[in-house]
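Support reply, case 0932

Customer input (verbatim):
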Amino acid sequence: MQKYHIALTAAGKGRYRAVLTDNSDSSQQVFDDVCRETVRGKPVYVGKETGPISLWTVIVQKRGDFYRIDATDYRFWIIRFDECELDETDGQMCIQGWAKQASFWEEIEGGVAA
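Our regenerated output:
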């Protein structure tokens, strides 16, 4: 079973909402304001974790027929969701992805949004 799940849904006005779930304990991190930015000359969607302490950031980018979503604390951890797909849930389009594990920042080739 995949440990992590992420779902990104439209929130209106070009903004999106992402929910990252750790299936081992059902904890969730919510990113209420994911919006378009340019990182290293590429269009991506970026959002900070909602709440008083925003430790995590999500970065969403289109890669061919799929999307890649990185969730990172920019210090130690990154959860990479490769091959996320556009899907329909409860009548609403969303991008969903699964990941088996979190990795140390140094283990990811190319870094975030590369």
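We compared this against your earlier run and they match. Two observations from our side: The beta strands are 4-12, 15-22, 27-39, 42-48, 57-63, 66-72, 77-89, 92-99, 103-104. The chain has a mean pLDDT of 90. Please reopen the case if you see a mismatch on your end.
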